[in-house]
Structures are given as structure tokens and as C-alpha cells.
Amino acid sequence: MHKNEYKIGLELLKNESEQFVSNIDNIAPNIKVTDEFTVSDISKGVGIEKAFSLFKHKYGNKISATTGPNYYGFIIGGATPAALLGDWLTSLYDQCSPLTDVTNVLENEVIEQSISMFGLSSDFNGTLVSGATVSNMVNLAIARQWVGEKQNYDIAKKGLINSNLNIKIYSATPHSSIFKSLSIIGIGRESVEFVGTKKGRESIDVNSLRQKLSENKGVPCIVIGNAGTVNTGDFDDFLALEKLKEEFGFWLHIDAAFGGFANCSNKHKYLLEGWNSADSITIDAHKWLNVPYDSAFQFTKHTKLQSKVFQNGDAPYLDNSINSYINLTPENSRRWRALPIWFSFQAYGIDGISEMINNNCKMAEKTAQWIDNSEYFTLLSEIKLNIVCFKVRDIMGFSTETFLNKVNGTQKVFMTPTNYKGEYAIRIAFSNWSNNNKNVDELTSIFNDIASSL
Ligand SMILES: Cc1ncc(COP(=O)(O)O)c(C=O)c1O
Predict the structure, then answer these.
(1) How far is the CA of 76 from the centre of ligand 1 (A)?
(2) How confident is the model at residue 324 (pLDDT cuts 50, 70, 90)?
(3) In terms of Cα–Cα distance, which of 226, 241, 256 is closest to 114?
(4) How many CB atoms are located within 10 Å of the residue 137 CB?
(5) What string of H, E and C letters represents the secondary structure of 374-432?
């Protein structure tokens, strides 16, 4: 190891970055790796340059362009130039957040800025965690503590094992990470009771929820709402949930992994009306804010409860104050993930971020319109935000699955299937800052060519 290697590394990074970024439209968005897996001998190091050559040789042509505009699967976003700069600097400075003051101060600034960007009320506090799954888990762990305290039981101290607590959880269309979170925090995957959905929608039928809550009057319940379901981008009616909350006093958690960004669009922010009545909210940063992995916001109004759950043992060398991030999140040592967000906020502002959100929503509408006018396809739901969910018409004589396999097989674009109300469907998610009309034209032209050839 030698300090001179920094220079070599920087040069390699510069060349690689320039090549990757300028070529991104031509790199396949989802490359399958089928080669035999080989393990290099590491008994003797080869030096930084040879390590890079080896990496390029073994893995260089297997890197997918998930950060480019042709990746429409899941909802993953890309990485804006400013966020990427912040991420490079995060690695350069290698601050162990939250053990240095600057990391805390800057994270506090980012949390305040994000609370304002998302239009959240000032009684929310927040932290940064690695993704929406962990944010959901943290928020549900706080909700769990609330349920315990309502029944005079301190779960953080005594655990769930002998608690005999009554824990009721209601949701209509929760993301798979909710079940994972409930498994991790000891409540269990099977504890979710599904409530009915509105006709043809994925959002809560408030009457169905009211019925369940009425049957459990006096029991502290957790309601998990959605701002953006993964299939169709559907939203619960938060004004109705707010009213119901006033009547029944449940904990409202909202999974807004990508839907929280609706607040950045004048046309779509109505979807979030009433969401300030939530007790906790999850929003990903590595999705629609387009910062590199891994990064998400975790918001709650119940910081005291949060610190009860995430407080360290009483270590004299740690900051024991309740507002220290070390006592609010699962990790102790953690990456300075506030820095890429900070760069993104300063470089683009709420204006620039809103433009990206609006642009993606317009792309979704344009694509949906094309699909709706096409003889081959049927839209499965109206466009709420940035997701288009559709299938091949039943009369076409080829299946939606066959069509999707052909589309992804072109290696030019990539999208993921889903099961929507029992039917195999395709979802196109727009969440990349660099998407433009040309990409939509290319996408629809691929659809047209493939559908007409089947
Ligand atoms: C609504 C919703 N919640 C949670 C998640 C999980 O997010 P992450 O992969 O960042 O943990 C996703 C990811 O797609 C999502 O769409």
C-alpha cells in the first residue's frame, strides 16, 4: 500500500466514469450472469492497477445499466451527477457517522430540508437509514413500542416473549418489506389483517377498515397505509384515514417509499392530503431522489419512543443523548449517507427535483396513452403517478408473459412483471432523472415491433 495509489485510483475512476456515463444508453439494463463462478487467488496482492484490470476482465461487461433511462423495473431511480459527487466524497472522507460532529450537523440539515420538501409538519423528526425496508422496520418497531406502552408494557425492556400483548395490524396492499419487517421485529408476518380495497383499486376501503376497528375498540391498532403501491402506484385516502384516526386513535404508518415525492408535483400533491396525521412515514432516497444506494428517510413524531427502542447499552464512550443518531437507528457505525442527499438538495433545489418528478409522471402518462390507443394492450389501472400497469389483450393470441420476455430479451429496455388482482401484468416505472420523450418513443416502438411479430 502506498499513498501514490490515490492518484492512480483517481485516474482509473475518472476514465471509467467518463466511459460508463457516456455509453450508458448502449449498455444492457439487466445483464444475466451465467458464467462459471471463479475465485481469484488472493494470497499475494497484485496492486491497484492490476486489480482494476482483473475487475474489468472478470466483471466489467456484467455491469447492468440500472442507472440509465432504459431501466423501468421495480422502482430504483438512477444517480444524479451531484448526488454521485456527494457519494464519492462520502467515501473519500470516510466519516463514521454519527461519531463526528459534522456528520450529525449535516444530517440534521438534510432532515430539516427534507421535512420541508415533503411538506411534513414540524412535529416530525427523522433519520437516514439504508432503504425503505429498514425504514419500515424502524417505524414499525416504534409502533410496536407504542402498542406496548398503551398496554402498560415496555417491550424494549422486557421483550415480546411473555408479553401476551394484543397487537392488531391492518393494511390493504402492503409492500413485501412490511412482512419482512414484522418478521424481524418479532410481531410476525401473519399478523397483518387485510382490509378490503376500493373497487378496482389497491387502496383501503375505509368502511372495511372502520368495521375492523369497531370490532376492536380499545385495542391499540397499527394501520399501515400506502402512498404509492408497487403495482399501480395507488394511494390510500389519507384525509379519510385522518378522520378515522381521530375516532379510533390508532398508530398510522405510511409507506411512501416513492409516493412521498408526489408532494413535489403540484398536480399530484393532493394524493398526500391528510398524511401529516401519520405517526411514522417511510420514504426512499435511492429511488426517486436519484441518489446512489443505499439511502432512505425514516420519519416519526415519536422520537422518545424511538430512542427507547434503539438506545445503546449505557456505554460511557458514546453519546447517550436521545437525539443522537446512534440511539435512533439500527446501526451504530454508519455511512455518511446524508452527504449525497445534501449535494442533491443544494445543486438542484426543490425546483429541480420537482421538475424531475413531473417529467417522470408525464412520461408515464404519455406511455399509458400510447398503450391505451394500441390494439395490442389493455391498461389495468388509471395512472396515479409514475407507474403504468398493463397486459396484453386476451384476444391477441399471445400471452403477456411471452411478450415481456421478448421485450426484456432485446436487452434494450427492462421492466418487471407483477401479479395484479390475480393476473400476470407488466409494470413500467418511471423514476430516472434522465428519462425523456425519446426514451418513451424507443420503448413504444419496441412494443409495437414485438407485438406485431407475435
Ligand atoms: C412501497 C415500497 N415500500 C418499500 C420498498 C422497499 O424498498 P427498499 O428496497 O429500498 O428497501 C419498496 C421498494 O420497491 C416499495 O416500493
Answers:
(1) 9
(2) confident
(3) 256
(4) 23
(5) CCCEEECCCCCCCEEEEEECHHHCCCHHHHHHHHHHCCCCECEEEEECCEEEEEEECCC
| CA-nearest residue, atom 5 of ligand 1 | 132
Cβ of 259 less than 6 Å from ligand 1: no
- Give 82-344's CATH code, choosing from 3.40.640.10, 2.30.30.180, 3.40.50.720, 2.130.10.10: 3.40.640.10
Grid cell of 52 as nine digits: 482494476
Q: What span, in angstroms and rounded, lies between the C-alpha atoms of 91 and 8?
A: 16
Q: How far apart are the C-alpha atoms of 246 and 329, rounded to whole Å?
A: 29
C-alpha grid cell, residue 432: 430516472
Alpha-helical regions (H) of 311-399 = 338-373
> pTM surpassing 0.85?
yes
Cell (9 digits) for 428: 413500467
- Phi/psi of residue 25, each to 5°? -65, -20
Q: What is the pLDDT of residues 330-351, one digit of tens each?
A: 999 999 999 999 999 999 999 9
Q: Is 234 in the pocket of ligand 1 (CB under 6 A)?
A: no
Terminal Cα distance for the chain, rounded = 58
Cell for 277? 396525521
Helix H or strand E segment including 184: helix 176-184
Among protein residues, the one whose CA lies closest to atom 15 of ligand 1: 257
Which secondary-structure segment (H or E) carries 132?
A: helix 132-150
Residue-wise pLDDT for 35-86, tens only, equals 888 999 999 999 999 999 999 999 999 999 999 999 999 999 999 999 999 9
Question: Helices 176-184 and 132-150, interaxial angle, to 10°?
Answer: 50
Ligand 1 pocket, mutate which of 137, 184, 254, 284 (most atoms under 8 A from CB): 284
